[in-house]
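can u pls check wat happens w/ phosphoric acid mono(formamide)ester
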Amino acid sequence: MNDYEEKRDLLAIDDFSKELPDLIDWAIKIKNGDDFVDEFKPLEGMSIGSIYEKPSTRTRVSFEVGVNKLGGQPLTLLSNDIQLGKSESIADTAAVLSRFLDGMTYRCFKHSDVGDLAKHSTIPVINALSDLHHPCQAAADLMTITENKEKLNGHISWIGDGNNVLHDLLLASVSLGHDFSYATPLGYEPDKMIIERAKKIADQTGAKIIETNDPEEAVTGAGVIYTDIFVSMGEEHLKDKKNAFDGFQINEDLVSKADPDYLFMHCLPAHRGEEVTDSVIDSKNSVVFDQAENRMWAQMSLLTYMCNENAWHTFKELF
Ligand code: CP
Ligand code: NVA
């Protein structure tokens, strides 16, 4: 069974700031590993459960396929089908599932819920998206940026909502020393405490952070332009929110201010014609489908590290 002495949880990407470069290298190695990867089964005999309170395409499929590739058994637990949130508390769910499983992922509305699940579990817990954080997305995104580092010329620039995806992208980018700019509409800035955390990390790595409400200022000279939908899951009742995003669409005009070899990034799903035009998302600069694929490789690295750390180190030393 598990090979960890003290369990570790991933609630936000800065839980693993120190390990992030190695976790990414590991993910790139296993992605390019061809034959030997077929023999590597660090999750053999283990079961990983994933609870979803919100829909998912990438996260669900990448966890199911990734766990299977590592020799483990994935179990997807949709919130409508389980007792959590109806007749059972998070604490009791955590205690019960810890008796069956070797690791858990949880996509939830309230960030404090994934913290509670982790607190009451004896097995590692991974945040698979909450209202505040999306660490698995950030791990895959920094992996994608690392894969393209030869042609990267300029800072990482976020244009759009100050949301969960921005929070972890900012934390991960500055922890790897990348300069970062973000432009959000007035009133839709990122969470203040997360900005403070990012600034502390940036002070240590030397990364610069530019905060603005002007998309043009943020993208000027950028090597990466990143956006997300304007209205996240759980915010559908905010009918007027989209009106604040006039001028925040990533289109030909805006990207002309960036480095010519800029990477266009989006966590997907995209609302084409809203936050990004077809001409940008389908351009040669777009790496959105690499990002989606990299969700699986990055999560395989995280799962192996968290559930079988010895195997993770052995793989790292051998390859
Ligand atoms: N990017 C992302 O998390 O996609 P899903 O909602 O499809 O999992
Ligand atoms: N910010 C989006 C990301 C979806 C992957 C949301 O939370 O809905």
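The first strand starts at residue 47 and ends at 52.
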